[in-house]
Amino acid sequence: MALCAFYAVWGLLLKVTVAFGPVPRITWEHREVQLIHFHESEVSNYSTFLLSEDKDVLYVGAREVIFALNAVNIAEKQHELHWKVTEDKRTKCAVKGKSEQTECRNYVRVLQQLNDTFLYVCGTNAFQPTCDYLNLISFELGGKNEDGKGRCPFDPAQSYTSVMVDEELYSGTSYNFLGSEPIISRHSHQSPLRTEYAIPWLNEPNFVFADVIRADQNSTDGEDDKIYFFFTEVSVEYEFVGKLMIPRIARVCKRDQGGLRTLQKKWTSFLKARLICTIPDKNLIFNIINDVFILKSPTLKEPVIYGVFTPQLNNVGLSAVCAYNLSTVEEVFSKGKYMQSATVEQSHTKWVRYNGEIPNPRPGACINNEARASNYMSSLNLPDKTLQFVKDHPLMDDSVTPMGDRPRLVKRDVKYTQIVVDRVRALNGTIYDVMFISTDRGALHKAISYENGMHIIEETQLFPNFEAIQTLLLSSKKGRRYLYAGSNSGVVQSPVAFCDKYTTCVDCVLARDPYCAWKPLEASCTDTFKESEIERNWIQNIGGDASSCSDKVRENSLQHTFKHGSTAELKCSQKSNLAQVVWKFKDDVLRVESPKYRLLEKALLIFNLSEGDSGVYQCLSEEKVKNKKFSQVLAKHVLELKKIQHTTVGPTTAVAPTEDSEITQLLFVTNLCSVTLSG
User: CA-to-CA distance for 559 and 638, rounded, in angstroms?
Assistant: First the structure.
């Protein structure tokens, strides 16, 4: 197929066809911003989060420990529970060839809110997964020690995902010690269900995310709540030399009861489809899905699914974010074509589009009013013909295409790991989706799309040791927004914006951050979501037009002296990665190519100083937005050379000054934040 044809030459194409993508305007180093940390010695793998916004508690599952932290300040630990593996289990695990020091421990993998009093928790438990109930009042386990097979992975390195829906746990993980039996299941006392153990259903999947989307209460079709699973698996429909990976979205219905004869205690509503994330004109396919966030908001007509992708053959470190409308997904499942396996050349199996008759009721559909009108009140009533079709045709031929038919964001030389999305209303009423995307180097990118473009507002180094961010969570409580990131070594809490780091109106506006606005009366950049009232004269422009700014000049002067013929170092600190630094001498642009000058990262060096070097030096930041250029004077240096004559006063003789007694003085004046605007 065409897909496989260009996979063969993909490695050659990547290097010549892909731009670097948008550059973060500001890069905040770890020490530059105020972050809150939590970690404890001898504890690792802080990878499972659960946020209770009502109680302002962040629950963290780590290796053999569960923490309850103050969600407003995670440095404040409220409770901790040690959940260790017995020596006997560790020994038996080691006998089976696993590491007693690392793998044969209890890694907390499931933290789900069961009700107001209990959390449902599961851990790997030295390759014997176990689940229990955590009492939130006493912060103790109930001692149930339920078998965690199918709810929690055996191996801490195995993929997994879970979501609690109406006190029933939906999970995607592996069902056996070897990790060779993948399963999507529901655990409940009334009607536990699971997938068939068959390659067409799940083929070596890597699970990343699961969530429920409730049926529209205003709808008249009587649809069911649906649970969506996201994973990457080995393709069955494409022929390739090696294992070709395909990103998938799968769906099951909450009220599914399984079949009466066919598919007993198995899903009757399980369907899956390909997720497309490509740049068609560049011949690029992003076929590994790393994380998903489903944005649900009252301001949205329907939920939007955001996914983070990388290519399978990722030899240049590419990442992409694609967004999908839920209606596009449902169109594929409710009206799309199915695939079927066909045997060719005796033993070879190919997957092709099914063009035959489709049974009624439609296979894989939820029980709705139309089905009830035909007397199908439950999946237990469905005819065997429909159920057998679902069993044999779980894969859709149609694919789920992204909004705009291309990624929202493509970035080179970075591997994105996690994503959360916030919906923010700017001061002018425009609503923006702000994406927070973490990297495998401990950094966080904040990006927005505007006017068919993408702007990365900032990059923040959350973890100083550049380790991968494994978990990312957003708290969007009214009046307060935080991000929580988990890694192997600890947890970091960050505000969603660092507005107070912008000291001028121009910088505040050029940030193009919908959280931030300039308050002229206070001459400060502030987080609008922390304010109870918004004044009309506050300045914000997501397009980056800073024409409304009128920053005042503040002067700080320093005086230096130096010897004739020495070197002057004029410092100038520039934060914006989108701006150019321009030096001016006596109001003319300085030509720094000559041997007289040298530019360092944050300074201008002037060699062999003489009287001709006296004058005013200005360091300007010039940032272009559309057809306008905004200039800020970051530093102003005034060099004045003076000759000071030293005389010796005696009773009869005066000593004349010599050239050797001349001392050159440098008067150093730093003038910050003078702003000019040119059209």
Answer: 9
